[in-house]
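Researcher: We're teaching a course module on how sequence relates to structure. For the next exercise, students receive a sequence and then see the predicted structure as tokens, so they can try to spot secondary structure elements on their own. Here is the exercise chain.
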Amino acid sequence: MYAEGAPRMDPEIFAQGIPTLGICYGAQLLALELGGRVEQTGAGEYGKVSMRATGEGLFASLPDEQTAWMSHRDTVVAPPDGARIVAESEHTPVAAFEDDARRLYGVQFHPEVVHTPHGQAVLKNFLYELAGAEPAWTPAAVIEEQVERIRSQVGDERVLCALSGGVDSAVAALLVHKAVGDQLTCVFVDHGLLRKGEAEQVVETFDGVFHVPLVHVQAQERFLSKLAGVTEPEDKRKIIGGEFIRVFEDEARKLGDVRWLVQGTLYSDVIESGGTDGVAETIKSHHNVGGLPADMKMKLVEPLRLLFKDEVRRVGEELGMPERMVWRQPFPGPGLAIRIIGDVTEERLETLREADAILQEEVRKAGLYRELWQSFCVLPAIRSVGVQGDSRTYGYPIAIRAVTSEDAMTADWARLPYDLIEVIASRIVNEIPAVNRVVLDVTSKPPATIEWE
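Model: And here is the predicted structure for the students to work with:
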């Protein structure tokens, strides 16, 4: 709240009688603008926190004792003038406040994430009871709105879709195809940074299932040469994002005058890449947001830009997408390049591919794939001493990362069964000669991010 250039609002907005819910920073902003106090109490709260609520207003019909997901160091220590405190935690004296007269409400925790068990109920109480809103959002309505918007945006011009094979780009492609039909050509770029067998699956699915025009570009050497010797994560992302655009521009020239590029950008990508007009802090540049080159020739079509992953999945189901595509775990655009810490080489890529294939196979066999938001392996930029057979080894460690989430904005580390971890670790060190150690990442987001780079 007190940082130089911190976002503020015109306090006159709060005098309009418009129902307003401030979440986290938003609650602090409400409090500060309307006579409350925001201070550092000496202890931040990150992750799951026990909270006591009053059972009224935002918390109507909810338990007094709740678990909430927090991510803050500054804290509201006194609510706005005229507001009452309706929730508190050990380190947050004002975890929630309400001012019914002015229809202003604030919560320090994050009700929008899956790790706040009663968070959806809090949002529903605000929207339907306190604000009087109607539940009008449906996947069908999103499709109808976006189809009209896409047609209006591109007219009768040709369109390219940046297809990765993930649910985001697949749903974006189907939306655009529904809107403009054969004006769309999908381009799938195999940059050599995909998981084992992934390129073949993408081509088979889109050519055999969706029957959408598809160009398969083999560009492994092109990307690896650009990444040679690059170790800085943001540089990797921007190099890959920039090279993606160059490949698409090359393909656009082959197809003629193509002026539009479709991308499966989500709202979580936008937020983490710096938000809109610099309102949010840049956590990491997503290749389809912060990694785009400034001199890009094509204009963007982003039909999912205001949706989160769970909403995209619902739209995909409405469009008739196969279940295995809808529920595919998220995979970053830069691929394995940001799961290899340090230099990206063919040898290190192959090591990571094999480890990740073992992890995915065992997670599926255990029936946990759908329960996890993401599960993957990371190859750190170090080696460690081991003993295999009668010899001393100096091999790579592999880190296992598995998390639960709903929208990637927050995540908790998954409590994988010990027996499963044992099987995965044993197979990795036994089947991959370059690896002699397996470790488990047990950090939530925040304070970590899901990906390591």
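Model: If you want an answer key for the exercise: The chain has a mean pLDDT of 88. The first helix runs from residue 25 to 33.
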